[in-house]
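Data follows
____________
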Amino acid sequence: MSVCRNYNDHSRNNCVEIDHVTKRFGEEEVLKEVTLTLKTGQAYGITGNNGSGKTVLMKCICGFLPVTAGSIRVFGKEIGKDCDFPKSLGVIIETPGFLPHLTGRKNLEILADLNRRITKADIRLALRKVGLDPDMKKPVSKYSLGMRQRLGIAQAIMEDPDLLILDEPFNGLDRHGVEEIRKLLLELKQEGKTILLASHNEEDIRILCDRVYQMDGGILKERKGQ
């Protein structure tokens, strides 16, 4: 299993290049000739109904699913050929899975031990950034849906990745929580992070995204007039 290394010069390169990607499950074609370029330091939104292909596309970018045809390059490396998974990627897709009997902080410490790139202080900071108390003793099994979502976002950002893939990142958050996470994502974009997010909420898309795409039946088209 290999992990993609980053570009040496982010300023002159695209972060993600998706070239005529098709994905089939048996006879079902869920992605149809999808082409998309994500530039460093910009936020991109994908809208579309459930089952339109948004999550499948995100999983392909992350290396979780192989493409049937076409190619995906992240930081200049082709996923599935040059490496299995992109380096410097933070992701939240579907419901984050955590060990329910442990605290949120302990869950993140276990995950951080896999790469050994960050300290316990970095984990505490990530939790604070998403509005969670790093000293909270409550196990994840007692978390509300919104708290679990915040923890998932903390996991996505804790290693300071250059690319964030966020599938419905505002699920379960109340209005205050949505405003907090929107502010955080705008700050991350200002820092030069590239963000790809899917959301059913048009206000999230309007506030956060530089460019917006519509997914319908596996076909991706840019929405104009944002």
